[in-house]
Amino acid sequence: MSRAEADVATGTDAGAGAPAAGAGPAAETPGTPEGSGTPTASRTARALWSLGLFRGELRIVFRRWRTAALLGVLAAIPVLVGIAVKFQTRGDRQGAGDGPAFIADVTNNGLFLVFTSLAVTLPFFLPMAVGVVAGDSVAGEANAGTLRYLLVAPAGRTRLLLTKYATVLVFCGVATLVVALAALATGAALFPFGDVTLISGQTVSLGDGLLRALAIAGVVAVSLVGIAALGLFVSTLTDSAIAAMATTVGVLLTVQILGAVPQLHAVQPYLFPHYWMSFADLLRAPAIGSAIARNAGLQALYAAVFVSAAWARLTTRDVTA
Amino acid sequence: MARNESPRPEGDFGGYADFGDVDGEARARRRRALTRYAVPVAVAAVAATTIGLGTALASTGSGPSLPHLTARQLLDKMAASDTSTLSGSVRVSTDLGLPSGLSGGLLGGVAGGASGSAAGSSDPFGGSSGSGASGSSPSASSGSSSAADPAAKLTELLSGTHTLQVAADGPDRQRLSIVDDTSQYTVIHDGTQMWAYDSGANSVYHATEPAHPAGTAHADKPPAGVPTTPQAAVDQLLKAAGPTTSMTVDGTARVAGRSAYELLVRPKQADSTIDSVRVAVDSATGTPLAFTLTPKGGGKAAVDIAYTRVNFGKPSASDFTFTVPKGAKVTQGKQDQHGEHPGGPGGAAGSGAVGSGAAKLPGGASGPELTGTGWTTIAELKAPSGAGLKSGQGGQSGQGSQGGSAQGPAGVEGLLGTLGHHVSGRFGSGTVISTRLVNVLVTDKGAVYAGAVTQEALVEAANAAAG
Lengths: 321, 467
Hints:
The structure holds two protein chains of two kinds.
Chain A: H1 4-8, H2 14-17, H3 24-28, H4 39-63, H5 65-88, H6 112-121, H7 125-144, H8 147-152, H9 156-190, E1 196-197, E2 203-204, H10 206-223, H11 225-237, H12 241-260, H13 290-316
Antiparallel strand pairs in A: 1-2
Helix pairs in contact in A: 4-9, 5-6, 5-7, 5-9, 6-9, 7-9, 7-11, 7-12, 9-10, 9-11, 9-13, 11-12, 11-13
Chain B: H1 23-60, H2 71-80, E1 85-95, H3 100-103, H4 105-115, H5 128-136, H6 150-154, E2 159-169, E3 173-179, E4 184-190, E5 193-198, E6 203-208, H7 230-240, E7 245-255, E8 258-267, E9 274-282, E10 288-295, E11 303-311, E12 329-332, E13 369-371, E14 378-381, H8 390-394, H9 409-419, E15 421-425, E16 428-434, E17 439-443, E18 448-451, H10 455-466
Parallel strand pairs in B: 6-12
Antiparallel strand pairs in B: 1-2, 1-11, 2-3, 3-4, 4-5, 5-6, 7-8, 8-9, 9-10, 10-11, 13-14, 14-18, 15-16, 16-17, 17-18
Protein name (chain B): DUF2092 domain-containing protein
Keywords (chain B): Membrane, Transmembrane, Transmembrane helix
Organism (chain B): Streptantibioticus parmotrematis
């Protein structure tokens, strides 16, 4: 358990002795040696400390073999899809229109493997990976008994939570990029590259297509913001990392099933995966932005609700582990 | 550090109970917890109220205040409308209550037969089991080999909710897209060129029309497909209007951010299955912006077409150009096809689903005979060969009008038996297939009567024909 924070966490034992000390407002009053001095200096110090905390978190998350395994699985999916398309499609387009989105276009243009892979991974693989990392974020610390050491540090619980969330968000972006880049590499290796045919029928240059692919990766990453916040909240509820991950993934599966039941169409626009496939709108000309904007708004709403719920939980919780 | 207590139960809300010795502190903590939990609850509540208020205002809020118009003045305004350039998004919801086995196979045949499209060679009944399945999930694309054929594709609009994008620049240039989650079906009409592109199958359909004077082209076009814009639907409606119709201006509404008059149209004839038709007419341009058709049976609208975004500016010329994408499979359509205009706002698409009731039948080679007037027009099709419903689909295959009837009438009757119920009268006996809007009577002698009328009216018409 060689935690970077454990070295930094050398303040007073605020976690158990005075439960209020770690709370948001309490963090405003510098009560530790390094917090003393002029307000400006303390703010700078706190910002630096936050940055250090954030970097430490990133290092911990991305050095874990578990994270590496998750990213490895995500990177393997485009390779598998690419190889399957390469060796199974023999010219005939029988059954085109079935299967994952854009898969019919992959043989013409390897860039479409990026879109296919994102369409394949977005419903389950990507959010599951995010759910694992988010569910582990706070509960993992509690599980390992390191949470209280983090909380005695002068940063305070609010900042710790935001740092954790920022780390999960970085993971959302990295996971999406891993899928996209693996797909790009596989597509370039197995299929021809060239001008891109949009789904509305126009043909644009490869550069334009790559820009659109990048924008689509961004939209996909933003789509994961909601499940990340949900996982963070679940993670603050329990001391068992496994339980938090399982609950987050379970919620994801449940919501995806609810989204597939036609009788529930009235509530479906409020489920966080509802607009996930809106990224395909970036492949139309003239572009349609409304669904992408609605997706972003819905994700922001989920993030606001669940991060504030996680904050309410963590800052008032009695941390014993 | 030792734990405060041995195994802490999972889900213990913060373990406040552990602090029994410091009662006041525990209470203060609980109070603070409640205050903090109020934050996410408040965020969720504010969002819910905003969304709820938004939809409530949109649906029940009173429309904008506009100068009063009579129905006649509003109709004149619509007739005088010179909107020729337009672009926007249209939401089409249809719930015709079709028997699921029919929605794909038969209607595909109907539209195909009516429009005389020659591209489809798929067997209508061989395909009907598959399309029955796709009837419940409208976004599933049909497995037919001519996936990009507009006539077949537009029938998808006959069930479920779809988003369309339309653009028009005069009568010669239109563009229509059916927008699906990850695919798009686009029809572009530019002068004599007609292109259709199906991104899901990466296939292209191309047809060339002989040049004809603009304006007259659409006048005598046989009804085909579904109305894809409010304008097309209203054209059908006005055709059906007459002494049998009452029209009133019923308030105002906001459609796609524009203020509009609501025209309420009700058939006076009791036999009609249509309760009312509501048309929202843009107050500035006289362009219909929304069209809602409610059947007598109640429930939600059978057809609901409305712009969600509309712009009366001239669309960019590049919207109407098409180059065949690399790797796409191109199907050439036969020349001289009338039914393949995209449903541009100029009224290019006729109505097979609403309005006159005359468009419901399999078109066939001979064409239906119309009886009755106005809303209760009944189309009658005498099928000499006993092929019954087949005659409509016969027209679909370009090879010959009876090309599809190889399976024989036995299969047809078996299918009819599962879809409809038996009736009898002076004409003999037959089967009635009912939907929310249209009833179809197929007599055992092979004649077909159809219309947006009650079953009794159909039987009466059959009796009258029998003499």
